[in-house]
């Protein structure tokens, strides 16, 4: 089973004083579908050209995190900032019948 995720942007780079802004920045993100929280206060920053791999057990929140990044679901708490023009796409993990 393959899970793919892609971030890209169609705007020019945004520069702020000391360098480029991250493509996306997640701070203190929480997501829960009951208790305990599935995602509890994570921080994640993805820079341009960076490769990121999510590894974890089944039910650990990998797909949920990708859905938060792509905007498919809203987190219960925390803050997400992204470069203007950023687009996210993901290949779902369901295998066609």
What this model shows, in words?
There is one protein chain. With 97 residues, the protein is mostly beta strands. 9% of the residues lie in helices and 39% in strands. It is built from one helix and seven strands; from the N terminus they run E-E-E-E-E-H-E-E. The protein has one helix spanning 62-70, and strands spanning 4-9, 15-16, 19-20, 24-31, 39-46, 77-82, 86-91. A three-stranded antiparallel beta sheet has the order 5-4-6, covered by helices on one side. Strands 1-7 form a two-stranded antiparallel sheet. A two-stranded antiparallel ribbon has the order 2-3. A hairpin with a 2-residue loop joins strand 2 (15-16) and strand 3 (19-20). The model is unreliable at 9-18 (pLDDT under 50).
Summarize the structure.
The chain has 97 residues and is mainly beta.
Q: Sheet bearing the most strands, described?
A: 3 strands, antiparallel
Structural class: mainly beta
Calculate Rg over CA atoms. 14 Å
Helix/strand order: EEEEEHEE
Strands, total number = 7
Average pLDDT, to the nearest integer? 79
**Which regions contain 5 or more consecutive residues with pLDDT less than 50?**
9-18
> How do the strands line up in the largest sheet?
5-4-6
Q: Which helices and strands appear, and what pairs or packs with what?
A:
Layout: E1 4-9, E2 15-16, E3 19-20, E4 24-31, E5 39-46, H1 62-70, E6 77-82, E7 86-91
Antiparallel strand pairs: 1-7, 2-3, 4-5, 4-6
Search tags:
three-stranded antiparallel β-sheet; 7 strands; 97 residues; mainly beta; two-stranded antiparallel ribbon
